[in-house]
Amino acid sequence: MTGFCNKLTPAPGVDLHSGALDTTAQRRLLDDIREITGQAPLYNPTMPRTGKPWTVRMTSCGPQGWVSDRSGYRYQPNHPETGNPWPAIPQMLLDLWDETTGYPAPPECCLVNFYADNARMGLHRDEDEEALDAPVLSISLGDTATFRLGGLERKGKTQSFKLHSGDVLLIGGDNRLAYHGIDRVFPNTSTLLKDGGRINLTLRRVTKP
Ligand code: SIN
Ligand code: FE2
């Protein structure tokens, strides 16, 4: 990690490294993301059953991309619109995974979420992976957002905190299956993305190594 970093632990197994990536690292990562979206364009996923569109646009890199459509949530090796295999996960992210998780195998999916000003993500759990012993590693770029963290029960208590550009959040341990979501994004809080908005990258180990 390249920035001045302050570690907070909002819940057991959940570590927030705020300011983990400095501006140079954020820009390098953004260049990598532009390459990825050039090969695997952001698309508008739809919700299981209802087919309602998400407000977040998505793409993935890595051997397994996470997709959502009318038939459900799943991992698959190809982009749902182009049919092409997902691009590789950038080396910088593989290194960050090793450094922060210490997990003995690389991530298989990096989900790329793009939030325009009005986008949000409802409370959910990341539970489509077999390797639940690996944490989820999340990186925020661009505008600040309010992250909501609950517990293991949907109806449980929640807390919220802000995620800023360059923050790295690990969700693992006893809270690997905690509910979480994004309440809102605050426009014009970062100059990293020239047209505004927020990018979140979520790295996950999908299969058991
Ligand atoms: C997610 O849970 O997939 C995204 C969380 C975030 O955007 O920070
Ligand atoms: Fe999630």
Automatic annotation (TrEMBL):
<dbReference type="InterPro" id="IPR005123">
    <property type="entry name" value="Oxoglu/Fe-dep_dioxygenase_dom"/>
</dbReference>
<dbReference type="InterPro" id="IPR027450">
    <property type="entry name" value="AlkB-like"/>
</dbReference>
<feature type="binding site">
    <location>
        <position position="126"/>
    </location>
    <ligand>
        <name>Fe cation</name>
    </ligand>
</feature>
<feature type="binding site">
    <location>
        <position position="154"/>
    </location>
    <ligand>
        <name>substrate</name>
    </ligand>
</feature>
<feature type="binding site">
    <location>
        <begin position="113"/>
        <end position="115"/>
    </location>
    <ligand>
        <name>2-oxoglutarate</name>
    </ligand>
</feature>
<keyword id="KW-0223">Dioxygenase</keyword>
<dbReference type="InterPro" id="IPR037151">
    <property type="entry name" value="AlkB-like_sf"/>
</dbReference>
<dbReference type="GO" id="GO:0035516">
    <property type="term" value="F:broad specificity oxidative DNA demethylase activity"/>
</dbReference>
<keyword id="KW-0408">Iron</keyword>
<feature type="binding site">
    <location>
        <position position="66"/>
    </location>
    <ligand>
        <name>substrate</name>
    </ligand>
</feature>
<keyword id="KW-0560">Oxidoreductase</keyword>
<protein>
    <submittedName>
        <fullName>Alkylated DNA repair protein AlkB</fullName>
    </submittedName>
</protein>
<dbReference type="GO" id="GO:0035513">
    <property type="term" value="P:oxidative RNA demethylation"/>
</dbReference>
<keyword id="KW-0479">Metal-binding</keyword>
<feature type="binding site">
    <location>
        <position position="180"/>
    </location>
    <ligand>
        <name>Fe cation</name>
    </ligand>
</feature>
<dbReference type="InterPro" id="IPR004574">
    <property type="entry name" value="Alkb"/>
</dbReference>
<feature type="domain" description="Fe2OG dioxygenase">
    <location>
        <begin position="106"/>
        <end position="207"/>
    </location>
</feature>
<dbReference type="Pfam" id="PF13532">
    <property type="entry name" value="2OG-FeII_Oxy_2"/>
</dbReference>
<feature type="binding site">
    <location>
        <position position="124"/>
    </location>
    <ligand>
        <name>Fe cation</name>
    </ligand>
</feature>
<dbReference type="GO" id="GO:0035515">
    <property type="term" value="F:oxidative RNA demethylase activity"/>
</dbReference>
<dbReference type="GO" id="GO:0008198">
    <property type="term" value="F:ferrous iron binding"/>
</dbReference>
<dbReference type="GO" id="GO:0005737">
    <property type="term" value="C:cytoplasm"/>
</dbReference>
<feature type="binding site">
    <location>
        <begin position="198"/>
        <end position="204"/>
    </location>
    <ligand>
        <name>2-oxoglutarate</name>
    </ligand>
</feature>
<feature type="binding site">
    <location>
        <begin position="73"/>
        <end position="75"/>
    </location>
    <ligand>
        <name>substrate</name>
    </ligand>
</feature>
<feature type="binding site">
    <location>
        <position position="128"/>
    </location>
    <ligand>
        <name>substrate</name>
    </ligand>
</feature>
